[in-house]
Amino acid sequence: MVIVKAKVKELTKEFGDYSVASDFSEKLDEKVKALIKEACERANANSRKTVMARDL
Question: Checking phi first, is residue 9 left (phi over 0); if not, alpha (psi -120 to 50) or beta?
């Protein structure tokens, strides 16, 4: 798991009194991993070993 469930819950409290379903964290983790993979692929396509913000 890439994300920290406690931090997700903490952040949702900043937007209101929300609860976080268990499957939300799992799905968010999948999306974050996909974004990281895409960023790595972009860095590789640009002959870099450093993943940068612009790769997102």
Answer: alpha
